[in-house]
Design goal:
six-stranded antiparallel beta barrel
Length: 123
C-alpha cells in the first residue's frame, strides 16, 4: 500500500492502492462511477455516474475482500450478501479502470460521495 500523500486541506489525500488493511473512508473514482469504500465499517457502495448503467451493487454492501484496488487497474472485490439466509454466497464486483483513490476527510462524513465527471480537472 502507498502511504497517503500529505497535502493541504483543499486537496484530497490520495493513494495508489487499497488492500483492505487501511482504515477510513475512501472514494474510488472509475471512468463512469465512484465507489465509497468504508474500511472502518467494512462496506462498499457503488455510486453510478450520469453515463453509468445501474447494477445490483448500487447500494451499500458488506465488504468481504479487496482482490485488487489500484489506480490504473480494474477494481475487483467481493461483497457479502444482504442476509445470512441469502441463496448467494457472495457478490463479485469488477469496476472499470480506477482513475483516483482519495480519502474522505473524517470531518466531512458525506452520506455518499459526490459524483464528478471524469474529465473534471482537480487543482
Amino acid at each position: 500500500m502507498s502511504e497517503p500523500m500529505n497535502r493541504d486541506e483543499t486537496v484530497p489525500v490520495t493513494v495508489e492502492e487499497l488492500t483492505g488493511t487501511e482504515s477510513g473512508r475512501w472514494r474510488v473514482v472509475t471512468r463512469d462511477s465512484s465507489h465509497l469504500v468504508d474500511l472502518d465499517e467494512c462496506t462498499v457502495t457503488r455510486i453510478p455516474g450520469p453515463s453509468a448503467k445501474p447494477t445490483i451493487n448500487d447500494r451499500s454492501r458488506p465488504l468481504r475482500l479487496i482482490r485488487e484496488c489500484r489506480v490504473g487497474s480494474r477494481g475487483r472485490w467481493l461483497m457479502e450478501p444482504d442476509s445470512p439466509d441469502s441463496p448467494v454466497d457472495y457478490f463479485w464486483h469488477v469496476s472499470s479502470v480506477i482513475q483516483r483513490i482519495e480519502l474522505i476527510p473524517p470531518t466531512g462524513h458525506p452520506a455518499e460521495p459526490e459524483a464528478r465527471p471524469v474529465d473534471e480537472v482537480i487543482p
